[in-house]
């Protein structure tokens, strides 16, 4: 008999839930063909799926209980999935892969229940994903890092763990749209 790992159990439970509730729940998948351009004035721009908007302070406080929350939080209309972006306060000399490993160590220290899944690099953007916990909820997270000039950008995506298979491809589509902002040199 083959032994089941935690990773297998997660996938198995997700498949059971999908089959059990098939046709009974409203499809909340975003329209991935419609994207909106976002430019925060940080030296880059990217596209977000339609329906995502910048969270106001009250909504952001309801999602991130800590007062040290990211300054840029974009959430979907259902308020169950979102992206965050901030400038990483780390020495420029540290390579991004070192920053990624440090973040993973910090996450493990904060909560030993964290389960890391995969990591990689897409067009200069380093990323990793994991299962985390917030209150009684199980959350899928994908953390990404990239460099724009001398600044390092730390971003994340979060959604209910049950929805990760629907959102993960959308997140990678968003990451593929990150572009360095072109300076207007004038004539």
Question: Can you give keywords for this protein?
Answer:
alpha+beta; 26% helix; 7-stranded antiparallel beta sheet; globular; Protein Transport Mog1p, Chain A; 187 residues; 10 strands
**Strand elements, count:** 10
Largest sheet: 7 strands, antiparallel
Radius of gyration: 18 Å
Tally of helical runs: 4
The H-and-E topology, N to C, reads as: HEEEHEEHEEEEHE
Task: Assign a percent range to the helix content.
Answer: 25-40%
CATH class bucket: Alpha Beta
Give the N-to-C terminal Cα separation: 72 Å
Strand order of the largest sheet: 3-4-5-9-8-7-6
Instruction: Using the 3D structure, state the CATH architecture.
Output: 3-Layer(aba) Sandwich
Q: What is the mean pLDDT?
A: 82
Low-confidence stretches: 23-32
Notes on the structure:
It is built from four helices and ten strands, in the order αβββαββαββββαβ. Helix content is 26%, strand content 35%. It has helices at 6-20, 57-63, 96-110, 164-175; strands at 35-39, 44-49, 53-54, 72-75, 82-87, 115-122, 125-134, 137-148, 151-160, 179-180. It has one domain: Protein Transport Mog1p, Chain A (3-Layer(aba) Sandwich). It has 187 residues and is an alpha+beta fold. Strands 3-4-5-9-8-7-6 form a seven-stranded antiparallel sheet. It has a three-stranded antiparallel sheet with strand order 1-2-10.
